[in-house]
Amino acid sequence: MTVSERKNGIIKVYTDDDGIWRVQYMRAFQEYVSTNYLGSYSIVKYEIQSDEDNYVETYSFDTGNGIIQTVVVVGDKLGMKDKVTVYDCKGSCGCTEVFNFTTETCTCTCDPCALSVTIMKKIVL
């Protein structure tokens, strides 16, 4: 799996073949995917972005059909709040989710897509 960390406009890329990279909101992602996607999946890319308030994890995953899906999970950076928000673009144009740190909103990259917004109780690891 490839892990990208974006901080202050600088992107660092890591390879996590051992599966030991610390992922803050992985459990929320797993719960969302198991509820909203059928079958198994494998994470192929993981990206972390953060600012003073938000911690944004973008998961790219394959559900076994060769089509890569993405989901964005947003929580507070310190992990103090009891909920996270999952954003998922639903459509046929191959769009992805983009989180705007200034407005603290998420949008899809193309039309016609519908942005699914799910607020989940944070699962403690």
Write up this protein.
This protein is mainly beta and 125 residues long. It has one domain. 9% of the residues lie in helices and 52% in strands. It has one helix and nine strands; from the N terminus they run ββαβββββββ. Strands 2-1-3-4-5-6-9 form a seven-stranded mixed sheet, covered by helices on one side.
Offer a quick outline of the entry.
By secondary structure, the chain is mostly beta strands. It has one helix and nine strands; from the N terminus they run ββαβββββββ. The strands form two sheets. A seven-stranded mixed sheet has the order 2-1-3-4-5-6-9, with helices on one face.
Largest sheet: 7 strands, mixed
What is the count of helical runs?
Answer: 1
Give the number of DSSP strands.
9
From N to C, what is the helix and strand string? Answer: EEHEEEEEEE
Q: How far do the termini sit from each other?
A: 21 Å
Strand percentage lies at: over 45%
In terms of structural class, how would the helical and strand content be classed? Answer: mainly beta
Shape: globular
**Strand order of the main beta sheet, please?**
2-1-3-4-5-6-9
What is this structure's SSE topology?
Blueprint (H helix, E strand, L loop, with lengths): L1 E6 L2 E6 L10 H11 L5 E9 L3 E9 L5 E9 L6 E9 L5 E4 L4 E4 L4 E9 L4
Parallel strand pairs: 1-3
Antiparallel strand pairs: 1-2, 3-4, 4-5, 5-6, 6-9, 7-8
Question: What are the main properties of this structure?
Answer:
125 residues; 9 strands; 1 helix; mainly beta
